[in-house]
Design brief:
Layout lengths: L12 E4 L3 H12 L4 E5 L12 E3 H9 L3 H5 L3 E2 L3 E4 L5 E5 L13 E3 L2 H13 L4 E5 L1 E8 L5 E7 L5 E6 L2 E3 L6 H5 L4 E5 L3 E7 L9 E4 L6 E5 L5 E7 L12 H8 L10 E7 L2 E5 L3 E2 L2 E3 L5 E2 L7 H20 L10 H24 L4 H14 L3 H8 L30 E4 L4 E4 L1 H4 L3 E6 L3 H11 L5 E7 L12 E5 L3 H6 L6 E4 L5 E5 L4 H12 L24
Parallel strand pairs: 1-2, 1-12, 2-8, 5-15, 12-21, 25-26, 26-27
Antiparallel strand pairs: 3-7, 4-7, 5-6, 9-10, 10-11, 13-19, 14-17, 14-18, 15-16, 16-17, 19-22, 20-21, 23-24, 23-27, 25-28, 28-29
Helix pairs in contact: 1-4, 1-7, 7-8, 12-14
């Protein structure tokens, strides 16, 4: 790739789309010292409350980009979703894993998309290396022999165009993605015919911190309270009622909302009738262009995973792209983005479809069977946990990609974020503040000799923070070459018990790349270095950087 003579770095990255995913990607890249140009065809951020739920995994990703406080200010720390049966009686409350929260944040959190976009844009504006242009659209992109991309941009409503050289193009431009279209990429899946009436209201009396799914087959309904008196209502429409794309009259809105609350016309923020898609892009990469968010996948809203899936895309791709941009990784690692993310995205799309068919069914017979099965499951502790902890949701497990070594129950899975004690102050803090935002090698109840063996194997092959986990009721004492942490409430020991006496390689996105015994360290280090390529191994393992002391580049 061409290096700019003035800056000594590659050209900046083009992010197409300034919605929640595009702004998140831009913030995450600038946090890793990668400059970005963001273009958005609309004149400003969205004023429509489309997405309304952020989960704990997304909040963890925002925190990694230094955006935790920015986002937490505008969300309602939620308590999941309550499901009601065909007679509108409470069926079960899906509130996610019981506290302590395994990722360090509440499981499901309500928000208003306009507020989120405004907050993310303001935060991006305070960072160096970011340039944002609204009212600007991508016309074309052409890869050059020198490894750059020549993009043509145009102000909306103008015939004048301009060109710029960028290093990569990230398509975060939604379901009608220009990047996807220019790349000749199709979508596979199903477009559903069911029409839903969506009404966003203000001045609402609901104060619940959870969403409500009413499974009455005569009128499946969703109610999601938000901050400051906001509330969303969604009603399945039957033939002869609202049509897709039409602007519902206030009379129509009133007819559906009034059984739940009194409402006046000025209390309706937004109302629309829509259908949904369950589709995934055939490929997520076209040369030096990548697809993220709705550009890569669209799904029914019933699981609240549309935006969250886009944030997962960002978390997976950004650390790899930043490492390549800085010359620390080889470009080959970027192929693992689709390898790792697409299977889980497909599973989440299918899960969202199934959930809709079951919870929002219009069949009285199916609703009766559903209610009987759920009530039977609630008779056992295992059944109650399956429902309340939402164990029916697809779990991301990477079996290919940046995963190496022998199979292990923790390999390819996200590492939880329990509270840990860190010397010398021994104040409880989230584990990610210790792991930093690069790689980490975590030793679980191992001794100094084993650490020396592992350090020698990885020396010069991987830049990483070394974290020594002490199990049991012992006081941690950090050594100069590594950070030592201890359990606070049993969550750390429960999470890492399967790896006792072993080491983990934890990636920047908090997924476990490998679990290995000290004697396997050399093989794992070689495999990982070969997979990452580039110059990721120029530095020794150290404890000089963590998320609490500033941003570091991917790989170190």
């Amino acid at each position: 790739m061409t290096i700019d003579a003035a800056t000594g770095t590659p050209p900046r990255v083009l992010v197409v789309g300034a919605g929640p995913v595009g702004l998140t990607v831009a913030s995450m890249l600038t946090a890793r010292d990668v400059p970005v140009l963001v273009v958005e065809r609309n004149a400003t951020t969205s004023d429509e409350a489309k997405a309304i739920s952020i989960d704990d995994e997304s909040l963890r990703t925002f925190a990694a980009a230094g955006l935790a406080e920015t986002v937490l200010k505008i969300v309602v720390p939620g308590t999941g979703t309550k499901y009601f049966d065909r007679r509108n009686r409470a069926l079960f409350h899906a509130c996610g894993p019981t506290p302590p929260h395994p990722r360090g944040f509440p499981f499901k959190n309500q928000f208003a998309q306009p507020e989120l976009e405004a907050a993310l844009l303001a935060a991006l504006g305070r960072r160096s290396g970011a340039e944002v242009h609204f009212g600007t659209e991508l016309v074309s992109y052409d890869e050059q022999p020198d490894g750059t991309v020549l993009v043509t941009l145009r102000d909306v409503g103008s015939e004048l165009t301009r060109t710029e050289s960028v290093s990569w193009v990230l398509g975060c431009d939604g379901g009608r993605s220009t990047v996807r279209e220019l790349g000749g990429i199709g979508m596979d899946g199903t477009s559903h015919d069911e029409v839903w009436l969506v009404v966003d209201t203000v001045g609402d009396h609901h104060r619940e911190r959870y969403g409500m799914h009413h499974g009455d087959p005569r009128r499946p309904t969703v109610v999601v309270p938000g901050r400051d008196g906001r509330c969303r209502y969604e009603f399945l429409q039957f033939p002869g009622e609202s049509a897709r794309g039409e602007q519902p009259s206030f009379e129509t809105v009133h007819r559906f909302v009034s059984p739940h609350r009194s409402i006046t016309e000025d209390q309706v923020e937004r109302s629309t009738a829509y259908t949904f898609n369950a589709v995934v892009a055939g490929t997520w990469r076209a040369g030096r262009a990548f697809l993220l968010g709705d550009a890569a996948h669209m799904m029914p809203p019933f699981a609240g995973q549309g935006l969250n899936s886009g944030v997962r895309d960002a978390a997976n791709l950004v650390w790899k792209l930043a490492g390549v941009w800085h010359g620390e990784f080889g470009e080959r690692v970027l192929d693992t983005y689709e390898t790792e993310r697409k299977p889980h995205a497909v599973a989440t799309v299918r899960y969202s479809e199934r959930l809709g068919r079951i919870v929002m069914t219009t069949s009285r017979a199916r609703a009766t069977v559903r209610d009987l099965v759920v009530r039977s499951m609630r008779l056992t502790g295992r059944g109650r946990r399956y429902l309340s902890e939402m164990r029916f949701r697809p779990v991301a497990v990477h079996t290919d990609g940046v995963v190496v070594g022998r199979p292990h129950v923790l390999t390819g899975r996200e590492m939880p974020q329990p509270l840990v004690l860190v010397p010398p102050g021994l104040r409880p803090q989230r584990a990610d503040t210790v792991l930093g935002d690069g790689f980490a090698i975590v030793g679980v109840d191992v001794d100094a000799a084993q650490w020396r063996q592992v350090s020698s194997a990885f020396d010069g092959r991987l830049r990483a923070v070394a974290v020594d986990v002490v199990l049991g009721d012992r006081i941690p004492h950090s050594a100069p070459e590594r950070i030592c942490v201890a359990d606070v409430d049993g969550a750390l020991e429960a999470a890492l018990a399967p790896a006792k006496g072993a080491f983990l390689v934890v990636r920047p996105d908090r997924y476990v790349a490998a679990v290995f015994a000290p004697g396997e360290a050399t093989g794992v280090a070689h495999q990982l270095a070969d997979l990452l390529g580039g110059s990721a191994g120029v530095s020794l393992m150290s404890t000089t950087k963590s998320a609490s002391s500033g941003h570091i580049r991917a790989g170190g």
